[in-house]
Amino acid sequence: MDILWSVISGILVIVGVIGCVIPIIPGPAISFSSLLLLQLKSNPPFTSDFLIWLGIIMIIVTALDYVVPAYGTKKLGGSKSGIRGSIVGLIFGIFLFPPIGIIIGPFIGAVIGELMIGKSSNVAFRSGLGSFIGFLSGTLIKLIYSFVVGYYFVESFF
C-alpha cells in the first residue's frame, strides 16, 4: 500500500507544479496534498508541526496570488480605480476566459479602471503592466513553494 501512496503523491507533486503555471489548477494546494497523502504510509515521514507550518505557508501563498497583482498595479502608479479594475478583471478573467483570462484579466481591468477616471493611456498601461508583473510574481511564489514541497517529497524516501 505504501507504494500506491508514494506513486499517487508523486503524481500530485507534478500536477501541483503544473498548476502553478495553469491558473485554474490550485498548484500549491495539490502539492501540499501530496505530503498529506504520504502520511498514510506505514511509517509517516513528517511531523504534524511540519505539516501545519507548510499548510499555513500554502494558505499564505495562495492568498498572495490574489493580492500581488493589485499590489503591482499600485506600485507602478495605479490609482484605487486601477486596483479595483485589476481585481474585477481577475474575477471576470477567471470565469469568462479561463485559463488565459486570469493572466490578461487583471491587466485589462487595471487599464480600463484607469481610463475610466480620465488617466492617460500611458498611465493606464503602466498600471496594467504592474498588474501583469504582480501576476508573474505570484506565479513565481507558487512555483517556489511547490518545488520546496517537491524537495520534501523526494527527501522522504531517503
**Percent range of helical residues:** over 70%
Strand residue percentage: under 5%
Radius of gyration: 19 Å
Total of helices: 6
Average of pLDDT:
89
The main pleated sheet reads as:
none
Structural class: mainly alpha
What is the distance, rounded to the nearest whole angstrom, between the alpha carbons of the first and last residues? 18 Å
Order of helices and strands: HHHHHH
Task: Report low-confidence residues grouped into runs of 5 or more.
Answer: none
Q: What is the total domain count? A: 1
What best-fitting shape do the alpha-carbon axes yield? elongated
Query: Can you count the beta strands?
Result: 0
What do these coordinates show?
The protein has helices at residues 2-21, 27-38, 48-75, 80-96, 100-116, 121-155. Helices cover 82% and strands 0% of the residues. The longest helix is centred in the last third of the chain and has 35 residues, at 121-155. It has 158 residues and is mainly α. The two termini are 18 Å apart.
Features:
158 residues; mainly alpha; 82% helix; elongated
Q: Care to give the gist of this entry?
A:
With 158 residues, the chain is mainly alpha-helical.
Give the SSE map:
Layout: H1 2-21, H2 27-38, H3 48-75, H4 80-96, H5 100-116, H6 121-155
